[in-house]
Design goal:
Largest sheet: 6 strands, mixed
Helix content: 25-40%
Number of helices: 6
Domain SnoaL-like: 52-151
Distance between the termini: 69 Å
Pfam families: SnoaL_2
Organism: Saccharothrix lopnurensis
Structural class: alpha+beta
Protein name: Nuclear transport factor 2 family protein
InterPro entries: NTF2-like_dom_sf, SnoaL-like, TAT_signal
Strand order of the largest sheet: 2-1-6-5-4-3
CATH topology of the domain at 46-169: Nuclear Transport Factor 2, Chain: A
Order of helices and strands: HHHHEEHEEEEH
Radius of gyration: 20 Å
Strand content: 25-35%
Oligomer: single chain
Length: 182
């Protein structure tokens, strides 16, 4: 039995969103569905392009570059039971959250992006570098309106590991300074 890949399409290509055309050609070839003529990939969905551009800006570490991707009334929900968990409302809260992630040297590598109406579903590898210790798969649901992210909901592949990491890295202040006294 051979372990060669008769289609020439790698798993990484599929996960990185080569497009359904290439996946369909590969599946058709595997099933003996005739010759696999090359067909051009469909044009990239504008919301997927927006999220790809967002990840490029995120990788730069420049918070001002990120600002242009967010609607003024953005809501960004971080799951879990840790100091960074909860829903951030508005651009300033979201950027403050990203500043904290920057302290831990967080990085993200998109694996797959899929549009669905106003939503883009994202699967990515997210990991910390300062200190190392968290390296998991995340899923995000981005809702887009007028070429801006208006909502993002994170889903951790291993919430327990995320909670442990964030508690280790982001400690609460001692009482009485821990609580907001508005």
């Amino acid at each position: 039995m051979t372990t060669e890949n008769p289609t020439g399409v790698s798993r990484a290509d599929v996960l990185r969103g080569v497009g359904m055309t290439a996946v369909g050609v590969a599946a058709g070839s595997l099933l003996g569905a005739g010759s696999a003529a090359a067909t051009p990939a469909p044009p990239e969905h504008p919301n997927v392009k927006l999220i790809k551009d967002y990840y490029e800006a995120y990788a730069s570490g420049d918070l001002d570059r990120l600002r242009r991707f967010f609607a003024n009334d953005i809501r960004w929900t971080i799951p879990g039971h840790h100091p960074l968990a909860g829903t951030k409302v508005g651009v300033e809260e979201v950027l403050a959250f990203f500043a904290e992630l920057g302290r831990a040297g967080f990085r993200a590598e998109p694996l797959a992006l899929a549009p669905d109406g106003d939503w883009v579903i994202d699967l990515h590898r997210g990991w910390s570098t300062r200190p190392e210790g968290l390296d998991i798969t995340w899923a995000l649901a981005f809702r887009i309106r007028a070429r801006r992210i208006v909502e993002a909901v994170n889903f951790a592949g291993d919430q327990h590991a995320a909670d442990q990491y964030f508690w280790r890295v982001y400690r609460l202040a001692r009482i009485p300074n821990r609580l907001d006294r508005r």
